[in-house]
Amino acid sequence: MSQQSEIVCRDRRGHRLHHNVITVKPILIPEEPRLVKPKLHLVREKTVKNVLPKSLYEPLEEIAKKLPWEDEYRIDAFDKVYWAAHNASCYKVFLTYFIVDILFVFKILNSNLMDTLKQENLDIAIAYGSNPCQLAVTHILAVPTIYFDLEGLTDETLIASGSPLDLSYPPSHCNTNENDHIMMKFMRHSFCYLKEYLAQSELPFIASLVSERHRLLDGPITKMFAEDYTIKKRYNGFPDVDQLKRHSAAFFVNTDPLLEYQRALPPHVIPVGGLHIDHPKPLFAPWNTTIESAEEGMIIVSLGTQADSGYMTEKQRLAIADALSKLTKYRIYWRIGPNMNRLLQTTNSLEKDLPKHINLTTYIPQNDLLAHKACKLLVTNGGMASIMEAVAHGVPIVGIPLYGSNRHNLRKVQYKGLGVILEKTELSSASLLKAMKAVLEGSKHKTIAKEMSKEFKSRSESPFAKALHYIEHIGRHHSNAYLGSRYIIFILKLNILHMVINY
């Protein structure tokens, strides 16, 4: 969808800033109105309807029902169906057009998206990670781009940004085995980083051999734009999207130094974790009334919005329900999601036998609940948005990683002492209850959570203000000259080679 508004903010000196903001987000899947976040009053929407065919959006729904609840932990299986959808969406939205005075006018339900964007004379663009189509479009628009890694600090961003690498520690995003001997860890990390470097090498044959992401997403998007007749007439060769990624003006990463391993980052890699967090809103009925009835406080159980908790196995449902039923002094909100009725229908007498201190719900105002003084624990799958909300509000975590980057994110939580991890293969009533009691009854995790929150809130600028500052700078100067060096990539190559030879 395309949104335009004049946003009034203030800079560090308190001066008012007026910005015309355009956001572009094609609608890929039919949206359920109650799941769509209300628009800000400053935002006017224009929707570019680009509903995918059933053959592409049904796999998105199916994998959310099955993958998270399988015993096997898979890192990128969730991504593959999204890559197919991205490719189809990119072709449909951005490469179906005719030419009018060199401006692109698209035949998507009478949309004139690129024409509109061209006429806006944009100063800067923000492209989300794992969406190379956006990078290609911003290249056509000839505007500096900020690359936003929503998954945190992934290997993809580390390599693209030219960040210094230590192959022994901290761990690579792709290495899921933390019990290896130190030498084996080094070899695994070396392999992961080398694989990612080759994936971004701009050598299509090699990149496709080592990287499914390049074979199924980056490569097809590059080819799509490079082989388009009109683009070929306008450009003397279209660059590889990995080259566009590396030449981003800055890299926003959805994490925070409080949560990250100790590592050196170049100045154009900017942590903005917590950027999405709103000011907590007052809780009204039934939330406030049920919280008040709790003797010891409140617990939130939410295993993510992409994973459909209505389809977890019966063994998993009963294990969680039995563990929660024993914590009778707490008010527990267990978010199931839109398929809550299916969970109740397929699990014998779950709703009937559930104690009154447990509330099953399709939705929770998570940020507002975490900010409440009575909140004592968050049980989460390890999405970065939830982790950053817990950091901001000082709530310790019990993490159950389900897929993708969950495990990598939660290992940071455990490393920093903010919480503990319970693998889904080890999930039982006894193990979950033990993990929850360890956090609820011990002082270590609670103390660290409160200290993190105090540090997070005491900074001179919020993540939003920091992001706004860099957006302002790059948009005003159309440059990141003082932020980073284009020679870092060459140094990175030598660094990887040097470490591999020495070990």
From TrEMBL:
Matching InterPro entries? UDP-glycosyltransferase (IPR050271), UDP_glucos_trans (IPR002213)
Annotated family: Belongs to the UDP-glycosyltransferase family.
Q: Which reaction is this enzyme known to catalyze?
A: glucuronate acceptor + UDP-alpha-D-glucuronate = acceptor beta-D-glucuronoside + UDP + H(+)
Of the GO CC terms on this record, one is: membrane
The family database entries (CDD domains) matched by this protein are listed as: GT1_Gtf-like
GO molecular function, a single term: glucuronosyltransferase activity
Enumerate the subcellular locations listed in this protein's record, separating them with semicolons: Membrane
A Pfam family matched by this chain, by name? UDPGT
Keywords, comma-separated and alphabetical: Glycoprotein, Glycosyltransferase, Membrane, Signal, Transferase, Transmembrane, Transmembrane helix
Organism field: Diploscapter pachys
Name the record gives this protein = glucuronosyltransferase
State where it is primarily located: membrane
EC number(s) on file:
2.4.1.17
Enzyme superclass (EC): transferase
Membrane topology note: Single-pass membrane protein
